[in-house]
Amino acid sequence: MNHFELALEEECESLKRHIHGERSHLPQRDFARPSLYSADVRSEIDGNNSGMIPLYNFQREGVEWLSNNTRILLADDMGLGKTVQVLSAIERMIGDRRINRVLIIVPRTLIGNWLDIASRFTPSLCVSACIAPEKSIDYVWHAAYIHNHVTVTSYEVAQYFSKAASKRFDLLVADEAHRIKNPATKRTKAIGEFETQRMWLLTGTPLERHPEDYINLMVLLDQNKFSKRDLNRGLPTLRNRAAPYILRRNKAEVLSQLPPLTERSEILELSEAQRKSYELVIRRMNNRNHLADFNELRSVCDFDPVTKESSKIDRTFDIINNAITDNESVVIFSFWRGLLKLANDLVNEKFNDIPKYLLTAETSSAKRQELAAQFGNSGGIFLASGKIGSEGLTLTRANHAIFLNQWWNPSQNHQAADRIRRIGQDKPTFVYKFTCRNTIEEAIKEIHARKDYSSKILVEALSETISTS
């Protein structure tokens, strides 16, 4: 049994105990002037360089660290500008003629975001996307390769790149690298076959579920130093061995000027109808399919399947009313479609004079960015799938985030919350998380606490052992 299966079995056992009462042909560009201008020299830049945007000190340190290392993991907290740091480092290294061509692999939904940030922060770079079906990938990627410094593509397309093609890139960047933590998947195998001297992995959540996730990323960077055997050495030892490969900063350390965060974990009572339905599910439970039983219990915590009553939505309306009174905006996350749809219907009915936006798995990549931009301009209420809304969106117009439910994996919840708490936020932020009393959600909360503890030991303490000087 592998570590993933073992962890899943442990969680199921924990939930069962709880339920039962127990708890180069490149165009020539001018690289003479670097893009890393500090705020105090910003005024000296002439009008022709008005596109240059100053970086924070910690971002400049990140650019320096990236530029001087080869196979590394940038694990900065979500919202600290990993994309900007990487593009600025690439611009510097191409300007110094240390590298020539770069391949950046990202989730498909984030390709537009990378292109947008490149156009604003590093306009001297030639950057384009490579999106094509398998039968025409060779032609499309070759055209992108010939005419650009940087090619941005998706994990799906990268799987079709030939081994010969991979050798032509001087640097491979993998964004949201937690997506390649499983060595058995096609996308991870494809990344492992790229023969490049330089590989930069980017993720704010290097440990999502189990320390094995962390080890798998380190093996991608240096298979001669890391292996599954490192799991037996203990988390502190593993952290120290990995420290030279990783740069990790969190918001509290580097953004002292960021407004305060208040996290409110609220215990709610099920409505009478919800409680009856919940007890009915427990009486019907059997040992055939634990996951199905757990999901049915969790669903009843969201809303009653018959009456549609929901103590969570009742509480959400209270929060929205208070926010509207203060002329503030709200983001609502649900990791399950049923409650997201119900919340959207009820919000539209109750708050018909407030701008509202809905982001689901069916929303196209271009539409997602459009909705985020519209929300940034007008504010209001933004309802989003927790899985889809947790990556690549800036929603700092809102300073209230409501989690109607939470994913099994706490890092996914943290990523979603960081859509509103990131660079650009100028108001105190409030994150609300609901747990229904005497239900399976209390057990899920305990699982989150254990996983957060492991992450703190292995990841969060990295800033104490890493020097960026």
TrEMBL record:
Keywords: Hydrolase
Record-listed E.C. numbers: 3.6.4.-
One term of GO molecular function: hydrolase activity
UniProt-listed SMART domains: DEXDc (SM00487), HELICc (SM00490)
Domain Helicase ATP-binding: 63-224
Superkingdom, natural source: Bacteria
Helicase C-terminal domain boundaries: 312-469
Listed CDD domains: SF2_C_SNF
Name assigned to this protein: RNA polymerase-associated protein RapA
Annotated organism of origin: Acidithrix ferrooxidans
